[in-house]
UniProtKB/TrEMBL annotation:
SUPFAM superfamilies, per the entry: P-loop containing nucleoside triphosphate hydrolases
Taxonomy, superkingdom: Bacteria
Pfam families, alphabetized: DUF1611 (PF07755), DUF1611_N (PF17396)
InterPro entries listed in its UniProt record: DgcN-like, DgcN-like_C, DgcN-like_N, P-loop_NTPase
Listed Gene3D superfamilies: NAD(P)-binding Rossmann-like Domain, P-loop containing nucleotide triphosphate hydrolases
D-glutamate N-acetyltransferase-like C-terminal domain sequence ranges: 146-339
Protein name (record): Putative NAD-dependent epimerase/dehydratase family protein
Span of domain D-glutamate N-acetyltransferase-like N-terminal: 63-140
Amino acid sequence: MTFSLSGRGDRAGAVHAFAAPYLLFLGDVTEPGFAKTAFGLRDWAGDRCIGEHALPDATVSTGLARLTPAQAAASGARTMVIGVANQGGVIPPSWVRELLAAIEAGLDLVAGMHSRLQNIEELRDAAARAGTRLIDLRVPPPNLPVASGRKRTGRRLLTVGTDCALGKKYTALSLARGLGERGVDAIFRASGQTGIMIAGEGIAIDAVIADFAAGAAELLSPDAAPDHLDVIEGQGSLFHPAYAGVSLALLHGSQPDQFVVCHEPGRRQILGTAGMELPTIEAVIEQTVALGRLTSPAIRCVGVSLNTGRMSPKDANREIEETSARLGLPAADPIRGGVAFDRLLDACR
């Protein structure tokens, strides 16, 4: 079996369907890290994206055509997707006018925010009049179990990070695709809103009540054949003062046999938290092994994924080589690929 973005028939997590093409809404975003949903869809579902729409104060762009909702609808768009993953997952009042414009243009709305479209009366009433849909993805499936800690069959790999928004999803997608191309029975498992939009199914772990979060992670990656590998999208960071709880629940419920640490060279502070320094890769490895042993006693780090998008090819290659030599592990930028990424894929097998 080759790489797949959808389930094997076991339907691990909620299944979501919405109509393409998409218009990506960027709100008033000025920090690229908070537009990761839009970038993820552009890069991994580009054939479904027709353009972008933003408020005047936005300074971030995906590079897609700038279209109003009416223009997008006239060009064939079916859905406007909120491409923002801001702190707290809020839909501010300043966005409502543009969301209403999308509804009036006949577009469905899709959001992966903690604030739910269905809870905004103006949007709900407008959608009822227009006959369009409001689709909230950060809604966990009902009747989630409490984690059992039972070791499941099959193999699992989890991406973890030194911070938020630095490549855990891209790494998981790249690894699943690369391993699939080598004939490995590998599948990407989405644990966040952007991954769910790309794959069409999954569970937004950070929307699950804390007591059930590890259980949701168990459900996300069910029993499988011995040679099957679930590549699970990581969330947050064990060192993030706000999101470490989500990361820990995902780690315990995933029960990964192996993990890859994701890091952005040059980033010094934890995103959205002034004064909090990023941990070292070494610290993340140590902490992940120590905490992961609770449900996966043989857990081990198999490599490092570096987000070198802001670096020149020469500097990126140097960083990759130095990191690998320092840690004694394969390091690579999955987007750049090459021999270094081949070594990382070898380690994951």
